[in-house]
């Protein structure tokens, strides 16, 4: 039994307070996995031949033990990627980041200072662009992670241009899922059918010929989601489902192998049409538009 990838929300702690934040990040949870517990998870993933861990959060770089755990993945020969708001990256840590991660996925919520900073806080757009330059100069592949809603969907053409100017190794565009903090800002994030269609059209026009369609969900593709406190679900969206229908277990109580077996036994049979649960859960609000990956970064998912 194997696992291909895992998306690991390493902490709920975050230095920003973005309006759309799906996990309502801010304060660290009291029961987040310790360094020893985290390394035990890495050991298990290594034994399961995990190809890649996608680290996300919260903001991983707020946790003092994060780079130690990420470096341990390197020792165990597991590829890693980092999704980050980029604001805690600088000259002092860029080299270690370069050594550890296959690529860095930098979040953008607009092609303009006005929009990005409205959602992510003042000063963060320019800070993010500076860090992208820093990563580029250090030779770290940067993937743009863009999340759009009604407030910023019209900036897609400029975002595609920006990704070219900054020589992004990839561009992933999602619409805002109306969950977490976004629930309080539906009027600026919900996309109607017409806006969604215009977004899709712009994306296809702007990237014609290099568009690589992304799957709508991870389910059944040997991928899991691990929360800061060790809860495992098929994906982040299902972790937000209060019914616990898709809860696979906690790493403090079960092995990841047992959870994969549980998933295959209890959930996979429901997922013959693997798009349906994702669609059901996100109530149609999430639409992964696609991924451009011209440099074929080793583990873009
Ligand atoms: C939760 S953040 C954690 C990593 C890091 N703090 C960051 O912002 O990049 C991971 C990605 O999810 C995106 N995201 C946050 N809230 C979302 C939502 N409601 N719907 C879709 N994507 C969302 C962020 O923009 C970011 O690209
Ligand atoms: S989207 Fe990322 S940076 Fe923004 S609050 Fe959530 S975890 Fe923090």
Adjacency order of strands in the biggest sheet: 9-8-7-1-2-3-4-5-6-10
| Rg (C-alpha, Å) | 18 Å
> What share of the residues does DSSP label as strand, in percent?
15-25%
The pLDDT mean sits at 85
The shape is globular
Largest sheet: 10 strands, mixed
Attached small molecules: S-adenosylmethionine, iron/sulfur cluster
Low-confidence stretches: 209-218, 275-289, 292-301
Number of helices: 11
**Helical residues, percent:** 25-40%
Oligomer: single chain
Task: Calculate the terminal CA-CA distance, rounded to whole Å.
Answer: 20 Å
Count of distinct strands: 10
Secondary-structure element sequence? EHEHEHEHHEHEHHEEHEHHE
Structural class: alpha/beta
What are the defining features of this structure?
301 residues; alpha/beta; ten-stranded mixed sheet; 11 helices; 10 strands; 35% helix; binds S-adenosylmethionine; binds iron/sulfur cluster
Structural write-up:
By secondary structure, the chain is of the alpha/beta class. Helices cover 35% and strands 16% of the residues. A ten-stranded mixed β-sheet has the order 9-8-7-1-2-3-4-5-6-10. Helix 2 links the parallel strand 2 and strand 3. Helix 1 packs parallel to helix 2. The radius of gyration is 18 Å and the shape is globular. The C terminus is likely disordered. The structure holds S-adenosylmethionine and iron/sulfur cluster. The site of S-adenosylmethionine has 21 residues, from strand 3 and strand 5.
Lay out the secondary structure.
Elements: E1 5-9, H1 35-47, E2 52-56, H2 66-75, E3 79-84, H3 94-100, E4 103-108, H4 113-120, H5 124-138, E5 142-148, H6 156-165, E6 170-175, H7 186-189, H8 193-206, E7 223-226, E8 231-233, H9 236-239, E9 249-250, H10 256-267, H11 276-282, E10 290-292
Parallel strand pairs: 1-2, 1-7, 2-3, 3-4, 4-5, 5-6
Antiparallel strand pairs: 6-10, 7-8, 8-9
The structure holds S-adenosylmethionine and iron/sulfur cluster.
């Amino acid at each position: 039994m194997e696992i291909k990838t895992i998306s690991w929300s390493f902490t709920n702690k975050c230095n920003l307070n973005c309006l759309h934040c799906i996990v309502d990040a801010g304060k660290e949870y009291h029961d987040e996995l310790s360094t020893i517990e985290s390394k035990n998870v890495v050991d298990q993933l290594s034994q399961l031949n995990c190809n890649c861990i996608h680290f996300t959060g919260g903001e991983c770089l707020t946790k003092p033990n994060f780079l130690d755990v990420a470096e341990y993945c390197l020792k165990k020969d597991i590829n890693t990627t980092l999704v980050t708001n980029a604001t805690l990256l600088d000259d002092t840590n860029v080299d270690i980041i370069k050594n550890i991660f296959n690529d860095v996925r930098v979040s953008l919520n607009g092609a303009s200072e006005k929009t990005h900073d409205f959602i992510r806080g003042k000063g963060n757009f320019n800070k993010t662009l500076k860090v992208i330059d820093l990563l580029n100069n250090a030779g770290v592949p940067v993937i743009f992670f863009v999340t759009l809603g009604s407030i910023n969907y019209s900036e897609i053409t400029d975002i595609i241009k920006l990704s070219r100017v900054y020589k992004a190794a990839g561009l992933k565009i999602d619409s805002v899922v109306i969950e977490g903090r976004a629930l309080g800002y539906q009027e600026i994030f919900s996309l109607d059918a017409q806006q969604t269609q215009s977004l899709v059209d712009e994306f296809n026009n702007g990237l014609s010929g290099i568009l690589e369609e992304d799957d709508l969900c991870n389910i059944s593709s040997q991928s899991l989601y691990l929360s800061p406190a060790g809860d495992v679900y098929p994906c982040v969206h299902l972790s937000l489902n209060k019914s616990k229908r898709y809860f696979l277990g906690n790493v403090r109580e079960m092995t990841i192998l047992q959870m994969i077996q549980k998933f295959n036994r209890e959930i996979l049979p429901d997922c013959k049409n693997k798009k349906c649960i994702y669609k059901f859960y996100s109530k149609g609000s999430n639409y992964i538009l696609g991924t451009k990956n011209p440099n074929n970064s080793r583990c873009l998912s």
